[in-house]
Amino acid sequence: IPCDITTSPLPPAMGEGALIALADGSGIEQADQMRRDFVANVSHELRTPLTALIGFIETLRGPARDDAGARSRFLGIMEAEAGRMNRLVADLLSLSRVESDERRRPSGRVELTGLLRGVVDTLVQRAEAAGVKLDLTLPPGEVRVTGDADQLVQVFQNLVENAVKYGGSGGWVGVSLAHVAHEPRLRGPGWSVLVEDRGDGIEALHLPRLTERFYRVDAHRSRAEGGTGLGLAIVKHIINRHRGQLRIESVKGKGSRFTVILPDRGTGG
Ligand code: ADP
User: Fold this and answer.
1) Separation of 176 CA from ligand 1 center, angstroms?
2) DSSP-assigned beta bridge partners for residue 265
3) What is the pTM of this model?
4) For this UniProt entry, which residues form the secretion signal (predicted)?
5) ipTM of the complex model
6) From atom 26 of ligand 1, which residue's Cα is the shortest distance away?
7) What is the 3-state secondary structure (H, E, C) of the chain?
8) Does the Cβ of 256 fall within 6 Å of ligand 1?
9) CB-ligand 1 contact for 218 (6 Å cutoff)
């Protein structure tokens, strides 16, 4: 369990006993509460589709046994519910993997223009089906950063999918890559990837909590879209691992901008 013991500064006047008291009173308890909330959330998220599945199995055994139409309709719903459980388990595994990876910095070299082209290519059809025009703007030439290609694909796929799903009402989603000469929080230059939409936007009060596990602005809509509520939590951990920054800006009624800034360590690495 991650806790604050090693990172809390020890006031100079206090001895070892005080450190333990401090850890007991804040870090461990807080981490424990978070773990309990997480387990409760996971159980709830799994139970909902499971309850539906059990209900439909009972109906298929009983009242709907001889009704071919109902049978095929129910099987379709059961498939969708099983798919939901499958996605949840896949996201949980993904989250646990990126959380335990977080201290190990990625060491690969990734070419961002090609990576972003790939992400947009895989989503362009889905966007079109939702009536959304997907625009990609890239600088000339190649752009290399230090990173884990699979994880960065996961980040941008997630952000673009969210923009299409929740911000698609504006009919347009833009993805653009640009150089940042100096990003103060990275203490140096960076490459920024901006994913923006002209959809409904998000009320300010939700913004600080969006990357929490299972936090959704509208749980009903998220479930209807097949969301697990874990996407942005996974995104946040991957960006932390890359020592990057995630900035979320949104104006209700106008749209949202999600900006990822990755450190630019120059061509050498
Ligand atoms: P989900 O699986 O629900 O999509 P995420 O962690 O990816 O989970 O996103 C959390 C919530 O943030 C979503 O349920 C949605 O309410 C909100 N959200 C994310 N991206 C956008 C966006 N581009 N526009 C509006 N709301 C968004």
Assistant:
1) 20
2) none
3) 0.87
4) none
5) 0.98
6) 166
7) CCCCCCCCCCCCCCCHHHHHHHHHHHHHHHHHHHHHHHHHHHHHHHHHHHHHHHHHHHHHHCCCCCCHHHHHHHHHHHHHHHHHHHHHHHHHHHHHHHHHHCCCCCCCEEEHHHHHHHHHHHHHHHHHHCCCEEEEECCCCCCEEECCHHHHHHHHHHHHHHHHHHHHHHCEEEEEEEEEEEEHHHCEEEEEEEEEECCCCCCHHHHHHCCCCCCCCCHHHHHHCCCCCCHHHHHHHHHHHCCCEEEEEEECCCEEEEEEEEECCCCCC
8) yes
9) yes
Look at the block and give the residue holding tokens 């990755």.
262
Sheet holding 245-251, edge to edge: 133-137, 172-183, 188-197, 255-263, 245-251
Q: Parallel, antiparallel, or unpaired: how do β-strands 172-183 and 133-137 relate?
A: parallel
